Amino acid sequence: MELSVLNIKGEDTGKKVTVSEEIFGIEPNEHAVYLDVKLYLANQRQGTHKAKERAEINHSTRKIKRQKGTGGARAGSIKSPVFVGGGRIFGPRPRNYTFKINKKVKDLARRSVLSAKAKDNAISLIEAFTFDAPKTKSYLNVLSALSLTNTKTLLILPEVDANVYLSSRNIPKAKVTTADTINTYDLAHADRLLISESALSKLETLLTK
Fold first, then answer.
1. What UniProt keywords are attached to this protein's entry (predicted)?
2. pLDDT beneath 70, residues of the chain
């Protein structure tokens, strides 16, 4: 598969790059994508939720009424979950939601999403660029030239570029990452992938190990 290289003005540079079929031309594995996205979302959870149960409520344990003769159910303590202010039955406790999936499954998930995006013509190769200073307007001009102003985009760079990252940070539908930190969720969430020409070889190296 060949992709044309565009510059930041949205113009075709005339260069074409052949991309790896092992990454951009496989049959997507939806279950691998599901597992990796589920893992990513699970890792975003703090797991600090907590509700007090009966033993943790700070109330008296005095028997609040006699056992028999009231016509109602027996009640031994105001901490009972059936009373307002009582403990919660089987309330949430702090826990860790993370789980493990194999690295090969993660790589398969990333390759699956990249292949699906390539099949949908949702990938653009961009000539390497940078900014002299972090300016949101500079990044907006790039998106405007590519007709992607209102599109969810993910720009993949070969390494961290502070000026490009800071320029994109205030744009709601734009995100910038590097080839070695991409994740399946961000790849799938974006409507358009912008891959820096210099990041392509690094991406292929990482995903074909």
1. Ribonucleoprotein, Ribosomal protein, RNA-binding, rRNA-binding
2. 209
